[in-house]
């Protein structure tokens, strides 16, 4: 077809507006492309331009060209060839559901956008073929737009750099977008969705100090020597008050920070508490001496100062610390006798070894030492893991002590909707009335939770617009792996929190300072030269990195020392710590691993209810309650059908059988030998070189494999068996693997363990030899499943 015959199509019919608006141009483009096969872009531009104001102007052609490009970019129309020449062609219809509930049509839909509307794509009634999440995920990764303001519902691109293609597409779909003037308007819901999709930050609520309510005031400002149990529901501010209590003990009661001990469960919880208290007490000279620790790090410190070494991981250290505190050791008794106040958070989950350790600690305290214990019986979800534990959490035990008074916090500060507030309260009542639990009771609670949800029974959560941010929670680890797989399958970015993983401290520190002697000092200029030589470059800029290092060094000097930084990282600040893989998107976690956290939006994935005689229905119900009460604004429930896995080892890990191999979960803490042991092996010639190899592997995220060496060790390498060595599988991992293969104790190891995903790297602190300060290194982080030959 020639341009003449294209033009012969004539002027647009009266129902096709020719007002030069974006929507009118888009309609005209679609109309000519659908009606006439084989038109080139130039022919379409020239036909459409005749219907816009001042058709001969360069602007008219540019405007029409811009709209054609936008339509092509979103596959509304496309390019084909005719007789070897590129031509514009019609494409099949698609209907896309937007986060605000509207559906827009793309492709050959025969619907006009309509006069006065600036949309490129018409809004249509009826069902969608895909969601905006699927469309955006299929293009590419979200582009970080840091540096630009958050997207307002009405706005214009003000960046100096060109608008990223991903944003252009998202705006074209999400609302009215003018691709030439780069202006947009869209609904609040769609704007807030895009802000999350592009990881644009809104204000940080944690930096605002909340005014305590009456109950919180009572607890926070109780006399230093009081012994109180604070039993209160989700969102009542227990963690918030735990911080206020410590601040008040220092500021109002004049306690020396070093005489206050606060214990909580996770490193992240501890880092958050330290961060909050640190910000409020920043002008107190000794605030850094506050002992804010996890139960595990408290045990490790106690053993270290007493010169006791306990092999065998965290649980063994906890048991050794308990024995030590019960052993009449004068050094330990003195150290603990100095404490003037102990705060324990999340006491409802203290069972088994950790509970016994806390009891041993409390028994050693001076009678004048105060105690504040926070917990919520309705959120107790760890009973099933421990023998005889039901009903005997630390919370329940301490409540029996004669010298302890009980207090409560009544207000719920988390929820933003009436339905959630009511559910938080009513389910707690139900749990209180039926502590033993039953199948019927469990289903009643499930029902109550669903009533408070804004949407239930979501089956395709991975493409649901609400899962751009917030939490996606599963009851089991099997569910979590399945959910992660579903997200991966549709190309979504997400963050994944798995229990029992090594701590993750930002890798650039180890990449830049790892392998250097602890006595190394560095000026800002020295640092600049190693920073600029690092490839790939760290995601934090040079000045930011230097500021962080000066803070960690804490010497007040203008240069840094590797030893000081390593010491500073013994208790890493919150901003350098992460407890998940991935850097953007919603956080996927089991309910067990998310306690104490909250999010505006929660997608609680339900599976078929448990069955059998062994089900602890009360605990199942409490677990659902913990999951549902993480939401402050929008709770949704969805469905997941967890894949089958077998389990092995302690802590439990998954494995699955395949015809000629087994898949075994890898990446748990202790799966690789530590840095000191690895560098002693013949595979490491130069530590600095090793570190740069690990840094590259962490950034490329390749699959690695472990190859058998001459000394019967399985050495982790990138590439083939001559590839770069970046680590070595530990004996405990190898033993577990051999037992899974049903191999005899002394039988040969496999030649290769393949398919091991490298998911990142972490900075590690390397203890110094006798009397020396510690130094730094970098270790790879592994994830997913290794393939083990039968
Ligand atoms: N007095 C207050 N005024 C306003 N907001 C508050 C107040 N106290 C706490 N909050 C906020 O309420 C939310 C819940 O607080 P927090 O996480 O401390 O509750 P919690 O009792 O520990 O919850 P959970 O038992 O679920 O872990 C947080 O966002 C916190 O900042």
Summarize the structure.
By secondary structure, the protein is an alpha/beta fold. It is built from 26 helices and 34 strands.
Portion in beta strands: 15-25%
Spatial extent as radius of gyration:
30 Å
Mean pLDDT: 88
How would you characterize the largest beta sheet? 6 strands, parallel
How many separate helices? 26
**Shape category:** globular
Which runs of at least 5 residues are low in confidence (pLDDT < 50)? Answer: 1-7, 384-389
**Beta strands, count:** 34
Ligands bound, unique: adenosine-5'-triphosphate
Can you tell me the number of structural domains?
Answer: 4
Secondary structure: helix percent: 25-40%
Class from helix and strand fractions: alpha/beta
InterPro entries: DNA_helicase_UvrD/REP, P-loop_NTPase, UvrD-like_ATP-bd
Organism: Rubellimicrobium mesophilum DSM 19309
Keywords: ATP-binding, Helicase, Hydrolase, Nucleotide-binding
Protein name: DNA 3'-5' helicase II
């Amino acid at each position: 077809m020639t341009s003449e015959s294209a033009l012969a199509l004539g002027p647009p019919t009266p129902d096709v507006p020719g007002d030069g608006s974006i929507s009118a141009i888009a309609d005209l483009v679609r109309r000519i492309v659908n009606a006439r096969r084989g038109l080139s872009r130039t022919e379409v531009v020239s036909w459409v331009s005749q219907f816009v104001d001042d058709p001969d102007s360069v602007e008219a052609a540019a405007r029409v060209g811009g709209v054609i490009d936008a339509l092509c970019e979103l596959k509304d129309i496309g390019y084909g060839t005719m007789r070897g020449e590129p031509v514009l062609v019609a494409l099949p219809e698609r209907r896309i559901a937007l986060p605000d509930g509207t559906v827009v049509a793309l492709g050959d839909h025969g619907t006009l956008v309509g006069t006065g509307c600036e949309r490129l794509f018409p809004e249509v009634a009826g069902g969608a073929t895909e969601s905006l999440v699927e469309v955006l995920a299929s293009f590419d990764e979200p582009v970080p737009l840091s540096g630009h303001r958050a997207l307002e519902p009405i706005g214009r691109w003000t960046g100096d750099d060109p608008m990223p293609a991903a944003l252009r597409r998202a705006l074209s779909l999400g609302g009215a977008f003018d691709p030439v003037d780069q202006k947009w308007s869209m609904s609040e819901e769609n704007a807030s969705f895009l802000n999350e999709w592009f990881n644009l930050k809104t204000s940080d609520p944690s930096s605002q100090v909340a005014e305590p309510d009456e109950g919180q005031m009572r607890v926070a400002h109780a006399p230093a020597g009081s012994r109180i149990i604070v039993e209160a529901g989700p969102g009542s501010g227990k963690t918030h008050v735990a911080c206020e209590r410590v601040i008040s003990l220092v500021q109002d009661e004049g306690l020396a920070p070093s005489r206050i001990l606060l214990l909580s469960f996770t490193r992240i919880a501890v880092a958050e508490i330290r961060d909050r208290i640190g910000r409020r007490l920043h002008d107190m000279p000794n605030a850094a001496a506050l002992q804010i620790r996890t139960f595990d790090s408290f045990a490790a410190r106690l053993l270290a100062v007493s010169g006791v070494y306990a092999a065998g991981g965290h649980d063994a250290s906890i048991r050794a610390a308990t024995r030590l505190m019960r052993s009449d050791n004068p050094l330990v008794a003195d150290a603990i006798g100095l404490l003037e106040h102990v705060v324990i958070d999340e006491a409802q989950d203290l069972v088994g070894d950790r509970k016994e350790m806390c009891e041993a600690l409390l028994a050693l305290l001076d009678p004048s030492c105060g105690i504040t214990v926070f917990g919520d019986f309705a959120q107790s979800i760890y009973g099933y893991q421990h023998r005889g534990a039901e009903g005997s959490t630390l919370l329940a035990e301490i409540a029996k002590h004669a010298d302890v008074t009980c207090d409560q916090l009544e207000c719920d500060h988390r929820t933003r909707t009436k339905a959630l507030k009511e559910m938080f309260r009513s389910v707690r009542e139900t749990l209180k009335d039926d502590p033993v639990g039953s199948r019927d009771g469990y289903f009643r609670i499930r029902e109550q939770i669903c009533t408070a949800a804004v949407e239930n029974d979501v089956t395709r959560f991975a493409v649901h617009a609400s899962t751009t941010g917030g939490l996606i929670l599963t009851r089991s680890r099997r569910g979590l792996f399945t959910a992660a797989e579903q997200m991966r399958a549709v190309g979504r970015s997400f963050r994944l929190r798995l229990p029992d993983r090594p701590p993750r401290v930002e890798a650039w520190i180890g990449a830049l300072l790892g392998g250097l002697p602890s006595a190394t000092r560095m000026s800002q200029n020295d640092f600049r030269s190693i920073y600029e030589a690092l490839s790939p470059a760290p995601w934090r800029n040079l000045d930011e990195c230097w500021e962080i290092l000066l803070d960690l060094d804490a010497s007040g000097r203008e240069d840094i020392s590797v030893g000081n930084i390593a010491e500073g990282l013994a208790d890493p600040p919150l901003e350098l710590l992460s407890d998940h893989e991935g850097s953007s998107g919603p956080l996927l976690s089991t309910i067990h691993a998310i306690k104490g956290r909250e999010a505006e939006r929660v997608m609680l994935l339900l599976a078929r209810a448990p069955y059998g005689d062994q089900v602890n229905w009360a605990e199942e119900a409490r677990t659902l309650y913990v999951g549902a009460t993480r939401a402050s604004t929008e709770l949704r429930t969805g469905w997941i059908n967890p894949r089958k896995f077998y389990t092995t080892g302690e802590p439990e890990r998954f494995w699955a059988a395949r015809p000629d191999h087994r898949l075994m979960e890898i990446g748990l803490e202790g799966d690789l030998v530590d840095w000191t042991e690895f560098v002693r092996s013949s595979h490491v010639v130069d530590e600095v070189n090793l570190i740069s190899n690990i840094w590259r592997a962490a950034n490329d995220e390749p699959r690695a494999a472990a190859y058998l060496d001459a000394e019967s060790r399985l050495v982790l390498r990138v590439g083939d068996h001559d590839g770069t060595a970046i680590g070595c599988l530990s004996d405990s991992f190898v033993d577990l693997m051999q037992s899974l293969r049903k191999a005899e104790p002394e039988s040969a190891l496999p030649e290769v363990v393949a398919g091991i995903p490298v998911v990142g790297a972490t900075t590690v602190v390397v203890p110094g030899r006798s009397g020396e300060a510690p130094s730094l290194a970098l270790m790879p982080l592994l994830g997913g499943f290794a393939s083990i030959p039968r």
